[in-house]
Design a protein that fits this description.
binds 2-amino-3-ketobutyric acid, alpha/beta, 308 residues, single chain, 6-stranded parallel beta sheet, globular, Rossmann fold, 2 domains
């Protein structure tokens, strides 16, 4: 049975990833986080892990000896601007600690999510390419852009099979996200589900790339199963399903909840959102590992409302 270690397992992605791993492979899973365990079940255990500590990280690897690692522990865009040093430490020191441990303990494959946050305001707004020279303006984006270079470095220098997808805003119902800029989308649908009005912190016409979690997780598993020799990108691949503005989301929600109301009161996250592209070029992902998605905006909203 394959042994899989997950860091940051209690976050928005972790909760979903555990489910899809369990439904697709026979695996023993060790979940780790700095907060208490939230997921239980056969073949799943939990240990405290702060990835900022090299010693603790290596101890966990030494004890569990994972075959694969999903390194999800990360500080996202909005909380990263509140504490840039913490974002630096978790996203870069933590990532280097995990990558080093992967080399030291002969891990077969490691997945580390990247983000649309690696792009800065100077990147093309439409179809932002995989290879770019834009300069991100958030600490989150800076650390993730540097981490992408580390993925290439660890692949070239140590032959470590590091894989990464630049996730867009992810819409999901299990664990509410709280630390990003794209989280308004989840928040708005959650308010609609409770028949409560919503005050949106982005302007109504702010376009951002988005994706339903189900599609993101299916894509992640498909990518992790892809033959290494087909992967021509060793920094991170672009993925997304649709461009969404708060107003487009509101229009979709109204089809299911005609009385839903939204007001707009932009805050500091507006500037972050405006520094990111509207859409990404996903052609490399389609060609190299068959990326596809199933959920459009209305299907996402319908499924969210049915599950909330
Ligand atoms: C955020 O908004 O910080 C994240 C992201 C797009 O990476 N959801």
């Amino acid at each position: 049975m394959i042994k899989i270690l997950i860091t940051g397992s209690n976050g928005q992605v972790g909760a979903e990833l555990i489910r899809i791993i369990r439904s697709s492979i026979d695996a023993e899973i060790l979940c780790t986080d700095i907060t208490q365990r939230t997921v239980e079940g056969d073949g799943i255990s939990f240990e405290y892990l702060d990835v900022k500590s090299r010693e603790l990280t290596e101890k966990i690897f030494e004890k569990f000896k994972p075959d694969q690692v999903y390194h999800l522990a990360s500080i996202l865009s909005a909380s990263g601007e509140k504490d840039p040093y913490l974002a630096y430490s978790v996203n870069l020191t933590g990532t280097v600690n995990v990558l080093n441990a992967c080399v030291k303990y002969n891990v077969d494959k490691v997945f580390v999510p990247s983000t649309i946050g690696v792009f800065g305001p100077d990147a093309p707004k439409e179809n932002a390419p995989v290879r770019h020279s834009s300069i991100p303006t958030t600490m989150y984006g800076i650390t993730k852009a540097a981490a992408e270079m580390l993925f290439q470095y660890y692949f070239d220098k140590y032959g470590l099979d590091v894989r990464s997808l630049r996730y867009p805003g992810l819409i999901s119902y299990r664990v509410p996200p709280t630390a990003g800029t794209t989280d308004y989308a989840v928040d708005m649908i959650r308010h609609a589900a409770k028949n409560a009005p919503y005050i949106c912190y982005l302007k109504e016409d702010t376009p951002l790339p988005m994706m339903y979690m189900q599609d993101a997780m299916e894509a992640t598993i498909k990518y992790m199963h892809a033959d290494s020799k087909n992967l021509t990108i060793r920094t991170a691949y672009n993925v997304m399903s649709y461009t969404l503005t708060p107003e487009m989301l509101y229009d979709s929600i109204k089809k299911f909840k005609p009385n839903f109301e939204v007001r707009y009161n932009p805050d500091f996250r507006q500037k972050i959102a405006e520094s990111w592209p509207y859409s990404l070029d996903i052609s490399d992902s389609k060609r190299d590992w068959g990326f596809s998605f199933r959920y459009d905006i209305d299907k996402t909203v319908e499924d969210m409302l049915a599950n909330l």
